[in-house]
Prior knowledge:
By secondary structure, chain A is α+β, with helices and mostly antiparallel strands. Chain A is built from 15 helices and 22 strands. Chain A is globular, with a radius of gyration of 26 Å. Chain B has 12 helices and no strands. The radius of gyration of chain B is 22 Å and the shape is elongated.
Amino acid sequence: MSSNALTQPDPKETSMKIFRTAALAVGALLFTLGASAQTLNMAKALDSPHYDSQRTTWSPTSDVTHMIQDTLVALDWDGKTALPLLAKSWTTSADGKLYTFKLRDDVQFCSGKKFTAADVLYSFNRQRDPATRSPYVWRAGKIKELRAPDPYTVEYELTEPYSDLLVQMTMFNNSIHNKDSVDALGKDYGIKGIDGTGPWCWVSWQPRTELLLKRHDAYRWGPSMYKNAGPVKFEKLSIKIIPEDSSRLAAMMSGRFDITTHFPTQFIDQAKKSPLLNVEEAKPNFQLNYYGFKASRPLVSDKRVREAMSIGINRAEIAKSVMLGQAEAAYTYIDPNALDFAPATKGIIKEDVVRANRLLDEAGWTKKGSDGIRIKDGVRLAPVVFIPQVTVFPRIAEAIQGYMRKIGVDWQITALESGIMPGRLQGQDFDLWTVTVPYLSAGELMNFYFDSSQIPSPNRMNWKDASTDAAILKGRTALNATDRAAGYQAAQEIVMKEHLWIPVMNTRMYQTSTKKIKGARAHMLFQYTFYKGLDVSL
Amino acid sequence: MSAATPNTSLPPKRRAGLLARLMRDRVALVAALVLGLMVIAALLAPWVAPYDPYFTDLPIAMQPPSAEHWFGTDNTGRDMLSRVLYGTRNTLMMGLAGVLIGGALGALLGILAAFYKRIDPWIMRTVDIMLAFPAILIGLAVAAILGSGLSAVVFALVVSTVPDVARVARGAAVGVMGQEFIEAGRAVGVSNRTLIWRYLALNCISTIAVFLTLRFGQVILVGSSLGFLGMGAQPPVAELGMMAAQGRDFLFMAPHIATVPSLAIFAIVLAANLLGDAVRDALDPRLQQ
């Protein structure tokens, strides 16, 4: 200890210390104010036809509605766990049919209106009203009745147990709407505005150009997965639509934008090495790129033909060469890390070109034309394949088309504009189609695609099988995790052994931001990474 | 009747002069040589292409030009030279079909409009309406209705070529209608059909041919643009516009995938335009003086 420590402090030095401390404090305050007054600039590849979350399946709608609106429960970073959000707690009855949600009493909409149980009842009733034509109404379960015994309690009664309910409650279609806003805007709801309880509030939207949001100053009810419960740390959020990959790339590299989910995949490795950018992969992330067979069509009705096409390709090569390593080969329909994955399905698809040829021979496609394409009863093995004409779909399809030619199958690829494709997929005039599907659990995919009640769409395979339906029902109505897993795993085994799909790859998803942006963790929900953005700061 | 029919076709001496004038134009010669070479290469594609243009080989995807693959490989490992040869073949056939069919229909409409005054306003107002839409927009609309594919693009090119040719043909035909031999033909009782085919059409054909030669380059460009937008040939068929579009996502990594087919389009369009200009100059009597 020096002698100076025992002497009186020098007043000049003390005042300097105070000044320095004050200056630092003012500087810090100014920095904080400066930061909070900033606009966060986001780039997106796709816009939406509207932002009414109950009337669409379109994923570019989902990320924005998650910013503006809240759900009763939030999805944790693990992609499996439901966390309290607008509902602070919940209980389930012994028969699994009644959920009682206790709501927060400190929540308000951007308009200032207080959030109550009436808003929850209104939102779910609107969704199940046939006039709303909500494509994702199934995600809310088979509702028998909704009751509000008091302003902050909701009784959610189902006609049958629904084991996936809480996870599905995190989806954007189950967001809470303000009846006043819906009524006031009428047909313009989701186009000229939305009043939500989310951390961001609607300001304006120029379709295919820019969506502008502002901070919800009263927001304090963010889910516990975020360090910051609210409000967000930016005054405004500007989301600009930049469809061209190269333009988005240049804009991010030049610092014009702060953050994007849509950094061109082929340049992700360069972005990782860039001193200007941060890249974070969403983990886990369940997005399967698959080709489905319309099993009722003559060319692909034989299981052997379907299997031959599935095992005649090299998924690892496609993932490496077409996706430049930004995807993982998929040999099962469900990602092994997803809830209720069936381990027994792992060995069903074994790539083997020799066996693929043998299967096609056994199925009667033995004769070959001068172009090497197989012929049976005068018909060429040339199935029609519908693909969306966006992003990597054409490239993947062409790569698979090359493999198919090697086993004597001539894929007739028909590339459809993404706006036209959903309508064309309602028809029966194609043999295969492809999409990339985001999902939360095995149960979701099994219920949505393989249950016979979903024929003709989204069960485009026209797959009607009593044992599949029974297994899915068992999983859906299970009262515990073991029974749920058993049901869904049995369903996976059945449909995979029928080779109703060609799983190709699980695509990776990244969030890219400039180095000045902090706390931008990538979420995995429905093909977008931003979610609430509560921790994002400068 | 034939003995009484006046001679209405070009004199043989003028035809010989046309070729001689074209031969003297060095730019036209080079353009003709380039276009001729590309046509020959396209016609012989099945025999001269070093590889199967549809054979994919992912491990060698996006390789730069080398001794094995002169133009490199594309994003699925296909040989670019082979695909450019086949792509040129499809692009030229698409352009030729668009020009010939659209030219024939447009010429017919234009000549009929000039000959039959009663239907002239109807045809020409329809043509005016069609001319109000850019060719690429007509192409997109047709492709959207009929679906994507080479035949849809050819149809779109035909539809977009008809109004231009109809207007030019009518203009030429109106000029010929004022000539004395038309009056003479009518006076000796020549039928309308003969007047149209032997008097009118034959005398308009050189003007229409020159216009179509000039138009060929534009048609290739519109067709390639539709291919670039995904409305044209569907995979794995090679078509230059579509191939350029496939390469744009790899401009930084493998620039040859987009630039090689783009250069092929550039060469075809430039050669066709230069040749068209030369043919027009050679046939223009004012320039001959």
